[in-house]
């Protein structure tokens, strides 16, 4: 049985009578009074009289003779029974049904005295055919459902097998999604000592999906068996505790310490905040390492009690990502989490569209000239080549590729030839080339709507992630500038420098 409805259907605007008619099979009569039909037939199926078409609506009558309008074809019209004297009138009804998407036209049966049983038999035959057809469809649907369930079970079993193999072999494909390296500070500020009892908090500048582990860096540690580090990973949208860690200070060591999640995060995006405090130390607090100056207040290290910045720096930390939903292998859980609570919005990473990469062009054309293209879009590699000169810098531009209200731009820096000397990479968001030059030369700090990643020196085989944070969001589209230079001016042969996997992070 095929159900057809047209685009004109608007159930909210129809009468209850019309909606009821769309739910059950009906017989339509033409030129026949309701009383002329057997009473038992009227009890077995709904019978309605067709009176004509008015203003695109069919005029029908019920068993009492009351007329009403019908704008949509009934769910199932078993047959049209017609007085032989009215032959020809059914064409208007069939046209009306066809206009409303009815493909399987109902049979037209003449109702004559003495032939009532034969006509009823045809109606029963039609109804039986519909029942058989529906039964076949139900059986077919059940078979398809069983096949889908079997496929799903097979996929689940295969996934579990792969997950187990990955765990046993230590092959979990971790990627360093974000890194904020420690910087030396003359002040040697101890944020754990300066913070309140609740400790410090740090918003992670990454999308939550795929987060597997977070590394924090200690510059100095006090080896005390009675003191513990308490850490929590919390979502800002609903204040849910995603993971928590309780680690004795004796298990920590100077340098990077990895807080492994029980399972790689998946599901809805969230904004993550890492909260840290030390319990059991009254004198000398461990010294957490700090990253560079952070222009965005929300990403500065904060007091967990009141969410106010303690310094204009962020914590030195790393965020590692893996396959969402996969258990972490045992080798990755250096400091495994103690608890996990399952927890819309949050930070979202937006990769630059492949088509946008084709717009990359050399910006400082008056300064740089090669026999080949200095800026080479490589969409198949999700990258842009930026060949550095022997002296000076090569600046490329993606025009109006940075939307308003972003928080960060990132890219992986690589050298695709092992014969190359070391190359410096940098990213800038700015409105024009002059502003970009000033930032690349570090002549001034980034202003409103601007960002500068700083220069990062890269050797062949290294793939650091460059990050540039917007100092103050503006409501206009900005240009993205990327630059390379030789670490040691002179030999730029084989310096196949590339910016790969350029992405933007937005809030929400």
Polypeptide structure, described:
It holds the Pfam family DUF6212. InterPro entries: DUF6212. The protein has three domains: 11-131, no CATH class; 175-345, no CATH class; 354-507, Jelly Rolls (Sandwich). The protein is 18% helix and 35% strand. It has seven helices and 32 strands. It has helices spanning 16-21, 39-44, 90-99, 116-169, 191-194, 354-357, 433-440, and strands at 25-30, 46-54, 57-61, 67-70, 76-82, 108-110, 175-180, 200-203, 211-220, 228-235, 241-248, 255-260, 272-279, 287-288, 290-293, 302-303, 313-315, 317-321, 335-336, 339-340, 347-351, 361-362, 375-378, 383-386, 394-402, 406-415, 423-430, 451-452, 456-458, 465-469, 478-486, 497-507. The longest helix is centred in the N-terminal third of the chain and has 54 residues, at 116-169. 33% of the residues are buried. Residues 1-13 and 339-344 have low confidence and may be disordered.
């Amino acid at each position: 049985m095929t159900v057809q409805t047209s685009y004109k259907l608007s159930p909210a605007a129809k009468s209850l009578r019309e909606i009821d008619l769309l739910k059950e099979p009906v017989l339509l009569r033409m030129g026949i009074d309701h009383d002329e039909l057997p009473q038992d037939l009227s009890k077995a199926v709904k019978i309605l009289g067709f009176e004509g078409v008015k203003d695109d609506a069919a005029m029908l009558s019920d068993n009492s003779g009351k007329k009403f309008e019908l704008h949509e074809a009934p769910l199932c019209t078993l047959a049209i029974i017609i007085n032989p004297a009215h032959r020809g009138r059914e064409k208007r009804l069939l046209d009306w049904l066809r206009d409303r998407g009815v493909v399987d036209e109902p049979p037209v049966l003449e109702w004559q005295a003495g032939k009532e049983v034969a006509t009823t038999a045809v109606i029963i035959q039609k109804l039986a055919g519909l029942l058989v057809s529906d039964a076949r469809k139900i059986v077919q649907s059940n078979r398809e459902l069983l096949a889908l369930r079997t496929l799903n079970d097979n996929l689940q079993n295969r996934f579990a097998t792969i997950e187990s193999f990955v765990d046993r072999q230590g092959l979990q494909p971790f990627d360093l999604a974000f890194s904020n390296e420690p910087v030396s500070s003359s002040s040697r500020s101890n944020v754990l000592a300066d913070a309140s009892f609740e400790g410090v908090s740090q918003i992670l500048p990454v999308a939550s999906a795929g987060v597997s582990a977070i590394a924090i860096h200690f510059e100095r540690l006090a080896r005390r068996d009675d003191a513990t580090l308490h850490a929590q990973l919390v979502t800002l949208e609903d204040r849910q505790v995603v993971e928590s860690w309780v680690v004795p200070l004796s298990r920590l060591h100077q340098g990077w310490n990895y807080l492994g999640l029980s399972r790689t995060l998946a599901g809805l995006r969230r904004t993550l905040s890492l909260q840290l405090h030390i319990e059991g130390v009254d004198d000398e607090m461990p010294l957490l390492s700090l990253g560079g100056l952070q222009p965005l207040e929300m990403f500065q290290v904060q007091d967990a009690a009141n969410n106010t910045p303690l310094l204009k720096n962020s914590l030195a930390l790393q965020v590692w990502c893996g396959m969402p939903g996969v258990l972490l292998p045992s080798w990755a859980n250096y400091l495994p989490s103690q608890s996990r609570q399952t927890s819309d919005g949050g930070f979202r990473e937006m990769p630059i569209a492949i088509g946008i990469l084709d717009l990359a062009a050399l910006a400082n054309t008056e300064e740089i000239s090669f026999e080949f293209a200095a800026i080479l879009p490589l969409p198949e590699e999700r990258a842009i080549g930026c060949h550095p000169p022997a002296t000076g810098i090569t600046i490329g531009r993606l025009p109006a590729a940075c939307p308003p209200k972003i928080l960060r731009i990132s890219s992986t820096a690589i050298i695709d030839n092992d014969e190359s000397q070391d190359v410096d990479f940098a990213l800038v968001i700015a409105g024009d080339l002059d502003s970009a030059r000033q930032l690349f030369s570090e002549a001034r700090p980034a202003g409103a709507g601007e960002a500068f990643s700083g220069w990062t020196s890269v050797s062949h085989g290294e793939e650091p992630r460059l990050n540039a944070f917007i100092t103050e969001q503006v409501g206009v589209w900005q240009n993205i500038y990327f630059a390379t230079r030789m670490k040691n001016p002179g030999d730029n042969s084989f310096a196949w420098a590339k910016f790969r996997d350029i992405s933007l992070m937005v809030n929400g």
